[in-house]
Amino acid sequence: MEICTVGGYEEVGKNMTAIKVGDDVFLFDAGLYLPPVIELQADDNFQEYTEKNLREVGALPDDLTLDKLGWRDKVRAIFLSHAHLDHVAALPYLIHRYPNVPILATPFTMGVVDYLFEDAKVELKNKKILMQPNSSYKIKGRSGEYTVEFVHATHSTLQCAFIALHTKEGVVFYALDFKLDKHPVMGEPANYSRFKELSKKGVKVLIVDALYSGTDRRCPSERIARDLVEDALSTVRDKNSALFITTFSSHIARLKSIVEFGKLTKRKIFFIGRSLNKYVTCAQQIKMCPFSRDIQLIKYKNQVDGLLKKVEHNRGDYMIVCTGHQAEPGSILDRIVSDKTPFKFKAGDNIIFSSSVIPVPININARDMMDKKLRKKGVRIQADVHVSGHGSREDLRDLVDLLKPKIIIPAHGSLQQETTMVELAGELGYKFHETVFLSANGKLLKL
Ligand SMILES: [Zn+2]
């Protein structure tokens, strides 16, 4: 078996891994690296995203490596683990290189992928195979038959999967991204009994989300985030000031908590922006949007401005859920804070960030600037009303313990972030360069 760690092994983004067994290659994920995408958009000459400009700025996984290896024509399937952009959003720009290759994803992930193709104005002609959580599918290759399993995982969006590929050399277990949440706010805990069965069958290699392998804790449950949201919103009940709350559009469980406790403020709840509309619609399509009746979705700019005008005059009547928690230029929150809408923040108004700043310079600087503007206006800021969706060191220890893989390959972070996973593996009896490897983008590992 050979593994090409195409992208996402030196940064948080552009995830792609290729596995080759005999004459058959399988691709896991096709994500974007978002910081250069945001910079590209901010450029004065920017018109639209193309494969060319995205490749030039290093936003796409460098899958040209597969051509050099002679692997591209051998790709038999593309597996998508979950709906986050750093796992799926490169697909519209790369898919033309893989004609007739089927794409496998859960219904929620596939719904988001459809939206991404629509946004990129690219037609998706490849066969789409919908994988229900905890289901499997057989794939015929040149060198044999394979079974791929989408094992239910807990993370921070809906229908996330661990992908288990059964090969004649053993199981490849792809665990990007996950945390081991025993009390998820939506859906079930991860499929622990299946982990044990797979471990008995023999997991040859575990490719794992090592982002927080250096943090000595378990990642707190989403239930904790629910309590944080409740607490944050309890401070604004019976107030006549404005209330805005922002979070990740794809985090449907978090949105559920926000609506649940938002209702107690007796305010009308509006979700504004295209991105929220996109993910909430996908959740509705798979009947996993329990708060549909409690909210109104506003999508278009003129409707948004109309609503914000009403909020300006009746501040205590509304709770506005919006995008822009990373202070992305041009996001609704950025426009509001920069006084580009009919609503103007004033002293005593509230903004809740149910998110954390993604620690890259472009986001840190943007949020700093936004916070300064908000403070100048006397707005009450509640930040970090959030828990992560990525497992920490003790989640990782548990996963390794359950699966007992022969080999571990840390992924999803900088080399420094992956090194702490190598150290943890060392603690668990794995040997560097023999049974645990530190890879890099474009590197080939022969196992
Ligand atoms: Zn993710």
Mind explaining what this structure looks like?
By secondary structure, the protein is of the alpha/beta class. Helix content is 33%, strand content 22%. It is built from 15 helices and 19 strands. The longest helix is centred in the last third of the chain and has 16 residues, at 361-376. It starts with a strand and ends with a strand. The mean pLDDT is 96. The protein binds zinc ion (ZN). Residues 82, 84, 155, 177 line the site of zinc ion.
SSE map:
Layout: E1 2-7, E2 16-21, E3 24-28, H1 34-42, H2 51-56, H3 64-69, E4 75-79, H4 85-88, H5 91-94, E5 103-105, H6 107-120, E6 128-130, E7 135-140, E8 145-153, E9 160-167, E10 170-175, H7 192-201, E11 203-209, H8 222-234, E12 243-247, H9 252-262, E13 268-272, H10 274-285, E14 296-298, H11 301-313, E15 318-322, H12 332-337, E16 350-354, H13 361-376, E17 380-382, H14 393-403, E18 407-411, H15 415-427, E19 443-446
Parallel strand pairs: 3-4, 4-5, 5-6, 10-11, 11-18, 12-15, 12-16, 13-14, 13-15, 16-17
Antiparallel strand pairs: 1-2, 1-19, 2-3, 7-8, 8-9, 9-10
Helix pairs in contact: 6-10, 8-9
Bound molecules: zinc ion.
Zinc ion (ZN) is lined by residues 82, 84, 155, 177.
